[in-house]
Amino acid sequence: MIRNSVLSRALIVFTLHFCLPSQAAGAEAGWEIEWERTIKAAEQEGQVTVYKIAHDAEWQAFQKKFPKIKVVLIQGNAAQIQQRLLAERRAGKFLADVVRLGGGTTTSLYKAKALDPIGPALMLAEVTDVSKWLDGRHHYNDIDNQYVFVYAAFPLHLLGYNQKLVDPKTLTSYWDLLDPKWKGKITIKDPKEPGGGSPLLFLYHNPQLGPEYLKKLFSVAGLTLVRDDRQQTDWLAAGKFPITLTSKATEVEEAKSQGLPVDVLDAHAFKKDGVGLEAGGTMLALANRAPHPNAAKVLINWFLSREGQTAIQKTGANDPGQNSLREDIPKEHLPASLQRQKGVKYIRLWGAEVWDREVVTKFVNDLVK
Questions:
Q1: For residue 173, what is the domain's CATH number?
Q2: Is there a single domain that holds both residue 259 and residue 288?
Q3: Same domain, yes or no, for 64 and 88?
Q4: Angstrom distance (rounded) from CA 8 to CA 5
Q5: Do residues 242 and 257 share a domain?
Q6: Sign of torsion, CA 131 127 343 273?
């Protein structure tokens, strides 16, 4: 009995010491083997087609890394890309592999059942390791948390102003916009337009402000809806509307660089009211029925890798890039306007709580009837 007991314990020790580590090592090596197989299959497919807005530098970096996989870029604004992709699918053409768009457009594609879950396509250990991402998790924009991957975000610079007509030091809170002197002098982007949802999403879902504040903005402050970003900035520069609530701070900053008397209030100036965290145009999705499924997997994994996310943060001399949600890559080179600050209460403008913008759009439409 004693001898059998000793032999049993010895067998357990031997198994733990020799067998289990090799099994673990095998599991770790498994993804590497599968990754190499996927690369070879992708090279045989020879192409990956990306429907996208914004930058090109990261795709060029991928092309350099994988020269046997030709990157075909289908470009346009968000509305154009959405219309083209859905029209193709209605005609029975499935040409897109990967989609890079913003929240409103990817939500439309999600509702149209044009996407596949992206999680099963993630293979690289450094990508699947959620500890490397903001808050220790992957971020998604869809209600199922698996179709639309959010990979970058920056503080929402919401308020633009005319430097000749507005003293920014007098603005310390969003409640200051209800001052009678600003009645009829503030514009906001129409939420039905691409890119127009973020300001309203932030105000609507912010527990410090919310629907009641929005009602007062439209009634007391007399907001004017605009549909064109450029017109909104032109009116701001001319002083016709000295304040804008805008999701296109880049338009205002460009006008300022041209010598026009406009500027954007620092995103953290009203931090006691909360600060929006915007992911505009920084969402990645996998088209279903993709014609080059292996190439799509390779591109997505590289794009979300340390190398790929470093590339999206350095897109060119005149473009500061995006602030990746990966926290294990350098951020020091990014301009202050893109930096996320520690200890700030951010209102995330993506995810299950805010993914469907129709709620806010309907709310605003009812206000302006």
A1: 3.40.190.10
A2: no
A3: yes
A4: 5
A5: yes
A6: negative
Q: How does pLDDT run across 353-366, given as a tens digit for each residue?
A: 787 777 888 888 88
Residue 96 exposure: Cα atoms within 13 Å on the Cβ side? 28
- DSSP per position, 98-125: EEEE-HHHHHHHHHTT-EE-SGGG---H
Q: What is the tens place of the pLDDT at every residue in 74-131? A: 999 888 999 999 999 999 999 999 999 888 788 889 999 999 999 999 999 999 999 9
Helix, strand or coil, per DSSP, at residue 341? coil
Q: pTM for this one?
A: 0.82
The domain of 50 spans 34-153+279-338
| Alpha carbon 76 to chain centroid, angstroms | 17
For residues 291 and 47, what is the distance between their CA atoms, to the nearest angstrom? 9
Backbone angles phi, psi at 52, to 5 degrees: -150, 160
| Cα(246)–Cα(310) distance, integer angstroms | 28
d(CA 322, CA 152): 6
